[in-house]
Structures are given as C-alpha cells and as structure tokens.
Amino acid sequence: MLMCRRWLVCSLKGQYRSLSFSASRRSVMPAWVIDKYGKNEVLRFTKNAALPIIHYPNEVIVKVHAAGLNPIDISMRGGYGAATMAMKRDPLNMNQSGSEFPLILGRDVSGEIMECGLDVNYFKPGDQVWAAIPPWKQGSLAEFVVLSANEVSHKPKSLRHVEAASIPYVAATAWSVIVNTGGLNKDNGSKKRVLILGGSGGVGTLAIQMVKAWGAHVTVTCSQNAERLVRDLGADDVVDYTAGPVEKQLQTLQKFDLILDNIGGETEKWALDLLKPWNGAKYVTLVTPFLHNTDRLGLADGMMQSGVTIGCKVLKHLRKGVHYRWGFFAPSGPTLDEISEMVDAGKVRPVVEKVFSFAQVPQVFQKVEQGHARGKTVVSVIDDQKE
C-alpha cells in the first residue's frame, strides 16, 4: 500500500525539484573522515571534505541534522568488509586500491532534503527525511550526504531529528531479518513465539517492538540491568544471561517459531534446538562470516566459501525440521515508510542511550566500541531543540 502511495505521489508532485542548490553552493563541507583503516586515531575532522553532488537522476542530497552510529561503523573503521564494499563502489574495478578515502562513516541520517534529481518526484526540497545509508556509500558524519531516493523516507512527524537518527539502520536490519528472511509480518505474527538473543542493543530493541506490535510473544536474553528496558519495550519473558547457562534457562520454556540471533558464536550449537520442529520455524543470525571470508580470501573465493558454509548448515538443520538462515541489512525507503507509520501510531519508539555533539565524534566511536549498548548512540550535527 505504501509502495502504491509512493507511486501516486510521484505522479502528482513531479513539479517539485530544486534547480539552484548545486550551482550556488560551496564545494567543501565539514566532516569526520578516515584516510586509512585502523583504530580511533584514524578519525580526522576536516572543513574541506568534498561536498556531495547528484550523479544520477534518482538521487537526493540531504542536509544532516543528526547521525546515528552502529557497530558496523566500528568494524568499517578497521577495514572490515573492505573487499566487498570496494566491489559495490566500483564493480568494474576501474579505480585504484584505496580510492574510497577519505571515507565518511555513519549509517543513520535524519535531516532535510536540499536537492532532488530530475527523476525524483516523491520528495521535494525542505522535506524532513530519514534514511539508512548502505555501507558502500559515504556516511552521515558530515554536513551533507547523497542517497538514492528509494533509500529515503519521510521522517516520523512525532520525532525530533536526534530521536529519528537512532532508528533507520536497525529498523532496516530488523525488517530484513524478521520479515524478508524470517517470514514474520503483521498479518501472520499473532501469537507466534519469538526469541531475540541479545535484545538490549539497537536491532534488539527495535525488533522487540516490531514483533510485539504484530501480536507475537517475545522472549529476550540480556543482562539483569537491561531487564527493565526490554520489558518496557514489550518483552514477555526475559532471561538473564549472567544468571547461569542461558541455554538451560531457555530449555525450560516452550519452543519458538522464530529466533533472531544478535550474539553469534556458541549460540548456534544450542539455539536451533529451541525451535518448533517440522513447523516452518526459522533461526536467523546476523553474525555471519560472509564479509570476513571476502576480506580474507578475496571476493570470488570468499563468496564460494560462504556459499559452502551456509549450504552445509541449511541442510544439516533441515534434516531436523528447522530452517537455518543468515540475515543482512537491506536499505529500503518503503520499509522506513512502514516503520514511520508505526512510530507515529505509538507502536515503536526510539531508544537513545546517549547524544553527543558533532565535535565529540571520537568519543562516540569509543562509546559504541565498548559494547553493552542500551539502545543507540546519536550525534547531533545541528541543534534541533527548536523543532
């Protein structure tokens, strides 16, 4: 329905397009960049980052009001996924190695449309929007960012930018994992039993609210000091992983229709035994070796190794009557349209652990790198207290 709405608005609002921003603006902007991969010391603030321009008619330029950081930003700072991201940026391999630098990180953005490409009709300059930025594109720790219009969505009217910037990347990830891979949605989620392993971080806190809004019974694992947070978000059962072997505690509960694993590691050895056998139940993990394989073995061999690994695991568990899947982030403006409606309807709320200023970006990376998150960490690029 929202997809149809996008098409209808595109048909009716084709007259809106900025003509002056590109021609009149300056050529540089402030941004936090890295010039090589490494630890936190590679972060560099500059006032002379190249200001993004529209290359394709379906692109928009967004003025960043707030940016959100995710664990993937920490990994990318160290070079994780560099081989795959290089292929996405340059599929014909025409550029030299290191052409991605200076690289701007930051996967969440909430801001304002400044310019639209010739084919963009669903948005107009001045629209308040949010987006989850694909990891192969320049990020949001800058004054402006350029995105494809199909990656952008109108921001929820009920949220300020610093609140909105906490949601897009984890929402797009949770939706991809739960809906696209896990097969659960608002039409079939009622009374389904869902287990979220690692429920107090960004993806976990969003996933709890999504599936609870669809009528599912939600069980969450987290530490004791996060129990109040996840229960406030809708968790029905909470298992404290610090109170003894978590698998033994979970084995006392009824089996599940869907497991979302944010932890990885040893969990695969016991988590699939918690699913309802021969009932279409699925285990979906966000902790996969795909990017590690491509970094280590190269793109072709890495993809082959990943294919062998996932194939063997799928067959192994299919014999037991359950489905094993890998989950991945997928950028999608229409998905964020759906989430925006849920936010404005009071079914989903932002979980912001801490807000930093734009000058404090190195401290933001340190905070996210420490782990044990209770929601999201956000950078306020423009003070939006007057909104």
TrEMBL record:
The keyword Lipoprotein does not apply. Keywords: Membrane, Mitochondrion, Mitochondrion outer membrane, NADP, Neurogenesis, Nucleotide-binding, Oxidoreductase, Transit peptide, Ubiquinone biosynthesis. Residues 38-379 form the Enoyl reductase (ER) domain. Its main location: mitochondrion. It comes from the Eukaryota. One of its GO terms (biological process) is ubiquinone biosynthetic process. It is found in: Mitochondrion matrix; Mitochondrion outer membrane. Pfam families: ADH_N (PF08240), ADH_zinc_N_2 (PF13602). It catalyses: 3-demethylubiquinone-10 + NADH + 2 H(+) = 3-demethylubiquinol-10 + NAD(+); a 3-demethylubiquinone + NADH + 2 H(+) = a 3-demethylubiquinol + NAD(+); 3-demethylubiquinone-10 + NADPH + 2 H(+) = 3-demethylubiquinol-10 + NADP(+); a 3-demethylubiquinone + NADPH + 2 H(+) = a 3-demethylubiquinol + NADP(+). InterPro entries: ADH-like_N (IPR013154), ER (IPR020843), GroES-like_sf (IPR011032), NAD(P)-bd_dom_sf (IPR036291), RTN4IP1 (IPR037397), YIM1/Zinc_Alcohol_DH_Fams (IPR050700). One of its GO terms (cellular component) is mitochondrial matrix. Pathway: Cofactor biosynthesis; ubiquinone biosynthesis. One of its GO terms (molecular function) is nucleotide binding. Signal peptide: none annotated. Belongs to the zinc-containing alcohol dehydrogenase family. Quinone oxidoreductase subfamily. This is NAD(P)H oxidoreductase RTN4IP1, mitochondrial. It comes from Sinocyclocheilus grahami.
